[in-house]
Amino acid sequence: MFKLFTLPRLSWSSGNGAQEKVVLTAAEVESLRSELADIEEREAQLKARLENIDETLRSAHLSGYLYIRKRWAALPGEPPPIDDTDIDDWLPRFAVLYGACLYLYLLCTDLSPHDSTLLSDIVEIDQLPSFKREDDETRHAFYILTRHGLRYECSSSSKIQVDSWLSALNFDCELESDTSKSK
Questions:
Q1: What's residue 9's pLDDT?
Q2: What are the structural domain ranges in the chain?
Q3: Dihedral sign from CA coordinates of 53, 56, 57, 63
């Protein structure tokens, strides 16, 4: 009677041609089915995530990795901020210029942005002086200043990438930087 309730033996072949028999209990089979269902659900979520990222990048005006750090303007009555140019707090972020916003993602595969800024809140965009990192890599930089006093300092080792961001942001924000005014 007990043999009626046991699962048939599954055969697994090993690399040396010998046959090994594995007996699984009903609980183990159910556990494996549950794991497979979880894997299929995860696969579906990742596919949807990839399609969302793909659609966003296709319709984005500009996107790419930039090294970014944030600074806040001093409030009235506060002492001026300390000179922190020697501090290397530049973090890589995936920036996407899409619609009326600038989105900052931790990674290009993230589904939701880590930070965002409306283009209508941007009051100033301009270049910063190039600088060298400790590995002697030259970084070209620019900044974005919002009306709330938040300043995004952005850099890249590619001058072409920085110039592309400056021209796209100036065009989308309908601003002229100091460098374009002097030309």
A1: 53
A2: 2-57, 61-78+88-181
A3: negative
Q: Return the amino acid letter for 131.
A: F
The CATH class that applies to domain 61-78+88-181 reads mainly beta
- The rounded distance, in Å, linking the Cα atoms of 111 and 56 is 10
Whether the predicted model's global pTM rises above the 0.85 cut: no
The token pair at 14 is: 């090993």
- CB contact at 8 A, 90 and 68: yes
What whole-number distance in Å separates Cα of residue 169 and Cα of residue 126?
Answer: 10
Percent of all residues in the chain with a pLDDT value above 70, rounded to a whole number = 78
Cβ-in-10-Å burial (0-12, 13-18, 19+) of 93 comes to buried
Find out whether 9 and 22 touch, Cβ atoms under 8 Å.
yes
Q: Is 112 strand, coil or helix?
A: coil
Find, among 144, 141, 139, 140, the residue nearest to 169 by Cα.
144
